[in-house]
Specification:
By secondary structure, this protein is of the alpha/beta class. 40% of the residues lie in helices and 18% in strands. The chain has a domain at 4-184 and 235-265: Rossmann fold (3-Layer(aba) Sandwich). The chain has eleven helices and 13 strands.
């Protein structure tokens, strides 16, 4: 199967949505996931969305070299999209070793297995967090990288390693995609994000308040130097992001070398703008209180997405109202996620 794409972490939030976009574009996703932050029930949901069979999936760890060697021997993999990783900033400060092990060591094992198997096309999930506190927004890819926590440093280490690998021998086709703030869900409401325990991120928290699982949102800081005093971020719809991966994959399959791209909308939205849009989309009130600033938060940042537009012809098409409407459809139909 020349269109087979190995999707590590493909059962997770962004990975599952990317599997939908890959299938729609004629690729065949092959998922590798250890389900440490996902449910195998997502596979049946993916089948419902595609109207076909569930994607093939392997239950395993990306750090397991013997498993990867078997996967590459048994499947004709054209390219890899590498989502598998840990992503909670606070956890990375408390337990840096497991972040470096999963995110950095996992990527090294994967890249070595790809090299041995002669598979040299790789799309890597990086993050705008590699920029740390930027000097200016919008942030271009050329901005300095100075991540402020182990999670962000783990992403930058992998970026640098893959850059060195690409320069070390011909044939590699690697895209490093720096996502801004992915939110929303597939428009079917069948797949979405369901964090374990109390959500750290804004949109899942707002959704859980709207559905009545939490009493109120604490807005982390109302005295930032932003138009309404609350933090500003570049929220990007997860299906736009998923389509960005397909565009990056097509580009990488056709061009050798290293590509580093921001995936964002180029527009910032404040916490209060998100909350108001969510209330509009859901018809539910989202009670909130202004609390202190969250340590480590940057007041405001958003992407310069012009390089992705110029290189891939990709740009985000969905706005904040779509992000909220789709999050709400998922949350209200699946208040306990896949359970
Ligand atoms: P997620 O936790 O939903 O998905 C990650 C998936 O990887 C999960 O299904 C998990 O079970 C799997 N996984 C973790 N460790 C593994 C291992 N050792 N072996 C195999 N599978 C493993 O997270 P997500 O939001 O979908 O993020 C996907 C990627 O994008 C991550 O690398 C993350 O760092 C990156 N990213 C996410 C965001 C965001 O805000 N969600 C922003 C920027 C970058
Ligand atoms: C957004 C805004 C908060 C929760 C994180 C990671 C980053 C990337 C994306 C992976 C901020 C405010 C939040 C709440 C609030 N992930 N907020 N009350 O911090 O921009 O980015 O996710 O790569 O690395 O750091 O996203 O959703 O946590 O916060 O007021 O209960 O919402 O202060 O202004 P963040 P977030």
């Amino acid at each position: 199967m020349k269109n087979c794409v190995l999707v590590t972490g493909g059962a997770g939030y962004i990975g599952s949505h990317t599997c939908v976009a890959l299938a729609a574009a004629g690729f065949e996703p092959l998922i590798l996931d250890n389900y440490c932050n996902a449910s195998p029930k997502v596979l049946e949901r993916l089948a419902r969305i595609s109207g076909g069979p569930a994607p093939r999936a392997i239950d395993g760890d990306v750090r397991d070299r013997a498993l990867l060697d078997r996967v590459f021997a048994e499947h004709s993999v054209a390219a890899v999209i590498h989502f598998a990783g840990l992503k909670a900033v606070g956890d990375s400060v408390a337990d840096p070793l497991s972040y470096y092990d999963t995110n950095v060591h996992g990527s090294l094992v994967l890249a070595a297995a790809m090299r041995a198997a002669g598979v040299r096309t790789l799309i890597f999930s990086s993050s705008a967090t590699v920029y740390g506190e930027p000097d200016h927004s919008p942030i271009p890819e050329s901005a300095p990288t100075r991540p402020a926590n182990p999670y962000g440093r783990s992403k930058l280490m992998v970026e640098e390693t893959l850059g060195d690998l690409c320069r070390s021998e011909a044939g590699w086709r690697i895209a490093l995609l720096r996502y801004f703030n992915p939110v929303g869900a597939h428009e079917s409401g069948l797949i979405g994000e369901h964090p374990q325990g109390k959500p750290n991120n804004l949109m899942p928290f707002v959704s859980q308040v709207a559905v009545g699982q939490r009493t109120q949102l604490t807005v982390h800081g109302g005295d930032y130097p932003t138009p309404d005093g609350t933090g500003v971020r570049d929220y990007v719809h997860v299906m736009d992001l998923a389509e960005g991966h397909v565009a990056a994959l097509r580009h990488a399959l056709a061009h050798e070398g290293l590509l580093t791209l921001n995936l964002g909308t180029g527009r910032g939205a404040s916490v209060l703008e998100v909350v108001t849009a969510f209330e509009r989309a859901s018809g539910k009130p989202v009670p909130r209180t202004i609390g202190p600033r969250r340590p480590g938060d940057v007041p405001a940042y958003w992407a310069d997405p012009s390089a992705a537009r110029a290189t891939l012809g990709w740009e985000a098409r969905r706005g904040l109202d779509d992000m909220c409407a789709d999050s709400w459809r998922w949350q209200s139909a699946n208040p306990n996620g896949y359970a």
